[in-house]
From TrEMBL:
Domain spans labelled Glycosyl transferase family: 199-331
Gene Ontology biological process terms from the UniProt entry: carbohydrate derivative biosynthetic process
Species the sequence originates in: Kineosporia babensis
Keyword check for Glycosyltransferase: yes
Keywords: Glycosyltransferase, Transferase
Name of this protein: Glycosyltransferase family 4 protein
InterPro entries assigned: Glyco_trans_1 (IPR001296), Glyco_trans_4-like_N (IPR028098), Glycosyltransferase_grp1 (IPR050194)
Domain Glycosyltransferase subfamily 4-like N-terminal per the UniProt entry, residue ranges: 25-182
One term of GO molecular function: hexosyltransferase activity
CDD domains linked to this entry: GT4_PimA-like
Segments forming a coiled coil: none
Keyword DNA-binding: no
């Protein structure tokens, strides 16, 4: 649902790449979907991002404007300069952080809402891509620098793992809300394709070091020992492409490994839909959009128990999580046998799980956070407001609700969903004692009446339920 404020706003999104960039990934897809849906809701949206070879510096697409300037490192300075020059016309900023923050609070007015969008924590990844001194600077900017510049500005994390990393590793101080991304497949027909006759594995993602695609290839001898006809399909492009092909030759599994460098979105979806299982060896994700896309196509996912992946995969239901360092080849062989026997049919379960996550729901939550941040900044002393990551889940049988009750009286930021004949409330920022006066104010029975089915402190997974405002 749209943000309560109906007047058109100018919302600026900052992200180091846009979806036309050859290295675009999940973060770029999130920004694209938010920008397009927010523009469709009647707002003016500008995306500030880096230059892309062959693309204009200014371009309109899907109702919003893309302004490109700067390169891999200078894009941050260009974005700050643009914001500084246009700060009087900017009503809110969605600051998408991919390791290096944009530090946009430095360039906008103090009462302009800035929402820090965290995809995942990069502290361990800087060393994989940069020399030690540069990696140290990156870690400082993502943690200490970010903490001082953003202060208590509101934060949106795409998963419980990212929120945990923001608190424990980066030690950020702002209020953090969890808002997972959505997904979209190219055609509904892909979801109805039959699985391949021979056991098939698909691995989707950019071919870069932290995705660790090499582990999948190195595991194929164990898979082929149990399933000689098995096939591995790798969908993606990146700087590790040739190295991965060499590993396949060295492991003598190149006959069973196919690289789909030029696959279209439709071809990718067909490969995923027809595969028996998808696999991810990534060292960590913010969430796992490709995981949910695979689930939407009826395919379970096997991955290491790593941040983000442990959130997007329901172990034993929509896929499997194995401990880091376990032999993934043996795990794949076991799951392929399970799926081949028919006892591991997961199509309907995975599709239902994927149905919880939509771009429309993500956009509505982000717009609500912008609205709440604007209200916070209008307080006389906004930095003194008490913040808490605690939330409470309340479940009440629908039959026990007062006649005519509607969720219209919920506080801004609270959420509701209707599941299995129950009303489930997510009350943000309150523990169990603090939830009692909230329940009374919104016209629901207090604990003393005995009508409540259950009430408990929310777990990370509770934030992934299909809540609506």
């Amino acid at each position: 649902m749209p943000e309560p404020r109906t007047a058109q706003q100018h919302i600026v999104v900052t992200n180091w790449r846009d979806l036309k960039h050859p290295q675009a990934g999940g973060a770029e897809l999130v920004c694209q979907e938010f920008a397009a849906l927010t523009a469709a809701a009647g707002h003016r949206v500008t995306l500030l991002t880096a230059k892309v070879k062959g693309r204009p510096r200014c371009e309109s697409t899907d109702g919003y404007t893309i302004r490109r300037a700067g390169g891999r490192f200078t894009v941050y300075l260009h974005a700050l300069l643009w914001l500084l020059l246009h700060r009087r016309s900017v009503h809110a900023v969605l600051d998408s952080q991919n390791g290096i923050p944009f530090f946009t609070p430095l360039a906008v007015r103090r009462r302009t809402p800035v929402i820090l969008l965290l995809h995942h924590i990069h502290q361990q990844q800087f060393g994989q891509y940069f020399p030690a001194p540069v990696a140290a600077v990156g870690r400082f900017l993502e943690s200490t620098g970010c903490r001082h510049v953003y202060g208590r500005r509101s934060i949106v994390a795409v998963s419980p793992s990212t929120r945990q990393g923001a608190r424990r590793e980066l030690r950020l101080r702002g209020e953090i809300r969890i808002t997972p991304p959505g997904w979209r497949i190219t055609t509904e027909t892909a979801a109805g394709l039959e699985k391949t006759l021979a056991p098939s594995i698909v691995c989707v993602g950019r071919l870069v070091p932290h995705k660790r695609t090499r582990i999948v290839i190195e595991a194929m001898p164990d898979v082929l020992a149990e399933h000689p006809e098995a096939e591995l399909h790798i969908v993606g492009v990146g700087p590790e492409r040739e190295r991965l092909a060499q590993i396949a030759v060295a492991k003598q599994v190149s006959h069973a490994v196919t690289f789909h460098d030029q696959a279209t979105d439709a071809q990718r979806d067909a490969l995923v839909a027809q595969a028996w299982i998808a696999v991810s060896c990534s060292s960590g994700e913010g969430w796992g959009i490709s995981v949910i896309e695979a689930n939407a196509l009826g395919t379970p996912v096997l991955a290491f128990d790593r941040p983000g992946l442990r959130d997007s995969i329901k172990d034993g239901e929509t896929g499997w999580l194995i401990p880091e360092g376990d032999a993934i080849g043996l795990a794949l062989a076991d799951r392929l046998k399970l799926l081949g026997d028919g006892s591991g049919t997961m199509r309907e379960v995975t599709r239902r799980w994927a149905g919880n996550f939509t771009w429309e729901r993500m956009t509505a939550k982000l717009l609500a956070v912008i609205h709440l941040e604007r209200q916070r900044l209008q307080l006389i002393h906004p930095e003194r407001r008490h913040l808490s990551d605690v939330a409470t889940v309340v479940r009440i049988p629908v039959d026990d609700l007062p006649e005519g009750w509607t969720p219209d009286r919920l506080r801004q930021g609270d959420a509701v969903t209707w599941l299995d004949g129950q009303l489930t409330l997510l009350l943000i920022g309150v523990d169990i004692p603090g939830s009692r006066p909230v329940l009374r104010r919104i016209g629901l029975p207090d604990l003393a009446t005995g009508d409540l089915h259950s009430i408990r402190v929310a777990r990370g997974s509770d934030h992934l339920l299909p809540f609506e405002r």
